[in-house]
């Protein structure tokens, strides 16, 4: 490699991209639109643009079709992330007042937010989550001016440290009436009796973006491990899963921009400087609308913002229920642009039946921990002046030449539960899911008879499924209802019955044998769900006695810390170090990070592990260079968080280290305070110890 005068690094045979002039101009929305390439028949319409919005990262709609936009104002204002957490973020609200498809009424609904990253729109108000906290606040506009005047704590979750790319984001109210987000080791459910959230442990995945499909499976994307969609064989509630028969060619990308601003450097670039592989997949949705071609329904849509493209994926399920993913356009992409500022970071099916794309439209997409001075990525950003491009944003509506979209504005917030029931079989999945959510929130059981009738006789299998889960949300599911659903003619309804029957499988009642019956279903997806549901029900009902302190290898306090660390490891560390601790290997045989199995830095003095987690590590490890190149610092997490993840690693994968305490982390944090990443040589010299000789420490 050599470094050019502009600071760019090029490998032998690697051609330069656009001239590095230190400046990359913005385009107006009209100019930007001319450069965006779409597949035949599709086109984009501008929905919202700067200056009405700045740095949009996510959207949700309320029951009347008003759009709420999360705006991370101050995100990466420059390459050094100056004043990033100044509390200038907002959630804006936008309304189409006359049904012409144009949002013409705008307001700042909530302000003074620290990089808002989670939103759940309810019936009267909105729940918002910010960066660096698990706390969730409730915002409500009681005066009708579009600005929240009622603000109160909704859920006290405590502080959350760590790099902002490694924190929970996104909320989806799923078909099963639980709230899912990324990274969390739990899911939420709203108690309509107490209006409080309850939590249930489960693994969380994904880096940015979360979605569910038509049948309630939650979809995640693994950007850090360069995997793309992950754990999609079944709902993550039942544990992680593999990639099925999806081939390695699926992770190849086909952009038309040639700006080489990928964190992974030259190994992820073709000779023409175009990105060659997934590296930042995010913002997924499963299209469920009725305003675009029917063959798009059920397809997985997500972005690769570093490649300035949007991937359309065909989700293929074989007769045994094994899921495979296929690029809908081999050697090409659904949407792509050469504009370096085109960065789609989220997508959603809209009330009008089309697909909305959230385009952050900015220069830098990566967080500052990957853009440090002297890094490859920083050289690229400075050379092209990408750090200057901030405070913009666009939201696009995807259209098709042969389809009209629904301009009829929903008015669900004014409708009674009986009227909402009629929307549960709507051809647009957004209407179905929104109606279900609002019925559950109203907690009016007068609609139960109508829901039972719909669940058993509606002409749409999707209507029957939504009626069933709405009954579940109203705590009105009975064994008789599940039994009828288990005999439904449509396999997806029988699949839903498998899940709905889970509370009964561990008992001796009339449904105790139902899952066994469904396990012999002629359709593979039903058999698969029956097996998952039986295992889940058995685990949920099994007693979990905690060992008495002093009994066994670890005491109660240590076990709790190790369990906490396991949740962190499974949602964060596996992308580089692998689920087995041996280092994750990509489909093109690149090893993302070093093995932790038997590592002297793991099994040796705790200061080595603690300092690595607190301040990060870059460069070769034991003479080997890894694809991730850099372990980012995690020092913004508290001492208990750090102690937990290190304790888990030191006591897992055959390692022989002992758990450590938060007090040990605090002591090392104080003695090792530094402002840059370690190299292996630096950290070993600083601690000056023979790592394999335990007598030295």
Calculate the terminal CA-CA distance, rounded to whole Å: 41 Å
What gyration radius follows from the Cα positions, in whole Å? Answer: 25 Å
Structural class: alpha+beta
Number of strands: 29
Unreliably modeled segments: 1-15, 545-551, 689-697
What global shape is seen? globular
Q: How can the largest sheet be summarized? A: 6 strands, antiparallel
Write a short abstract of this structure.
24% of the residues lie in helices and 19% in strands. It has 697 residues and is of the alpha+beta class.
Question: What does this molecule look like?
Answer:
With 697 residues, this protein is of the alpha+beta class. The chain is 24% helix and 19% strand. The protein is built from 16 helices and 29 strands. Strands 3, 20, 21, 22, 23 and 24 form a 6-stranded antiparallel β-sheet that branches. A hairpin with a 4-residue loop joins strand 21 (300-304) and strand 22 (309-317). Helix 7 runs antiparallel to helix 8 (491-500), helix 8 runs parallel beside helix 10 and helix 14 (639-650) packs across helix 15 (662-671). The protein is globular.
């Amino acid at each position: 490699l050599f470094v050019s005068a502009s600071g760019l690094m090029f490998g032998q045979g690697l051609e330069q991209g656009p001239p590095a002039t230190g400046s990359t101009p913005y385009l107006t929305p009209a100019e930007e639109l001319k450069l965006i390439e779409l597949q035949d028949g599709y086109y984009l319409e501008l929905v919202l643009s700067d200056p009405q919005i700045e740095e949009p990262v996510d959207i949700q709609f309320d029951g009347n079709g008003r759009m709420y936009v999360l705006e991370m104002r101050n995100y990466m204002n420059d390459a050094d992330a100056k004043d990033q957490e100044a509390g200038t973020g907002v959630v804006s609200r936008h309304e189409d007042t006359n049904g012409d498809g144009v949002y013409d009424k705008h307001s700042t609904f909530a302000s003074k937010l620290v990089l808002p990253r989670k939103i759940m729109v309810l019936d009267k108000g909105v729940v918002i989550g910010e960066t660096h906290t698990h706390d969730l606040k409730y915002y409500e506009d009681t005066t009708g001016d579009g600005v929240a005047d009622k603000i109160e704590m909704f859920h006290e979750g405590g502080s959350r440290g760590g790099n902002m790319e490694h924190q929970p984001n996104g909320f989806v109210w799923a078909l099963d009436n639980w709230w899912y987000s990324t990274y969390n080791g739990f899911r939420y459910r709203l108690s309509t009796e107490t209006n409080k959230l309850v939590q249930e442990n489960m693994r969380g995945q994904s880096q940015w973006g979360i979605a569910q499909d038509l049948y309630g499976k939650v979809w995640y994307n693994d950007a850090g491990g360069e995997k793309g969609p992950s754990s999609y064989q079944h709902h993550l509630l039942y544990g992680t899963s593999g990639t099925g028969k999806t081939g390695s060619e699926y992770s190849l990308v086909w952009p038309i921009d040639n700006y080489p601003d990928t964190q992974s450097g030259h190994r992820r670039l073709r000779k023409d400087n175009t990105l060659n592989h997934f590296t930042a997949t995010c913002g997924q949705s499963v299209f469920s609308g009725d305003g675009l071609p029917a063959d798009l329904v059920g397809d997985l849509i997500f972005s690769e913002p570093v490649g300035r493209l949007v991937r359309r994926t065909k989700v293929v399920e074989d007769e045994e229920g094994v899921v495979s993913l296929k690029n809908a356009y081999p050697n090409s992409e659904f949407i792509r642009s050469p504009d370096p500022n085109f960065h789609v970071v989220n997508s959603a099916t809209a009330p009008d039946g089309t697909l909305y794309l959230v385009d952050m439209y900015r220069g830098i997409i990566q967080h500052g921990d990957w853009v440090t001075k002297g890094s490859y990525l920083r050289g690229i950003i400075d050379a092209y002046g990408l750090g200057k491009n901030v405070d913009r944003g666009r939201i696009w509506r995807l259209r098709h030449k042969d389809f009209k979209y629904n301009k009829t504005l929903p008015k669900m917030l004014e409708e009674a539960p009986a009227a909402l029931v009629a929307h549960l079989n709507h051809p647009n999945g957004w209407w179905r899911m929104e109606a279900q959510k609002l019925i559950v929130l109203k907690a009016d059981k007068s609609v139960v008879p109508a829901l039972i009738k719909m669940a058993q006789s509606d002409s749409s299998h999707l209507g029957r499924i939504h009626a069933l889960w709405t009954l579940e949300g109203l705590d009105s599911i009975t064994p008789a209802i599940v039994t009828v659903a288990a005999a439904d003619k449509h396999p997806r309804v029988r699949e839903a019955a498998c899940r709905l029957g889970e509370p009964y499988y561990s008992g001796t009642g009339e449904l105790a044998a139902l899952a066994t019956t469904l396990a012999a279903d002629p359709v593979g997806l039903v058999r698969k769900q029956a097996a998952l549901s039986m295992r889940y029900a058995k685990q949920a009902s099994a007693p979990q006695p905690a060992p008495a302190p002093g009994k066994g290898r670890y005491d109660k306090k240590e076990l709790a810390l190790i369990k906490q660390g396991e949740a962190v490891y499974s949602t964060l560390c596996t992308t580089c170090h692998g689920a087995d601790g041996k280092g994750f290997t990509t489909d093109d045989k690149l090893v993302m990070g070093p093995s932790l199995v038997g590592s002297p830095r793991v099994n040796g003095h705790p200061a080595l592990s603690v300092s690595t987690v607190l301040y990060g590590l870059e460069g070769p490890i034991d003479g080997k260079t890894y694809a991730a190149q850099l372990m980012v610092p995690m020092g913004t997490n508290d001492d208990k968080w750090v102690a937990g993840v290190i304790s888990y690693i030191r006591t897992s994968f055959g390692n022989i280290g002992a758990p450590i305490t938060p007090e040990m982390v605090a002591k090392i944090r104080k003695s090792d305070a530094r402002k840059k990443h370690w190299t292996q040589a630096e950290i070993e010299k600083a601690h000056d110890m023979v790592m394999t000789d335990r007598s030295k420490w």
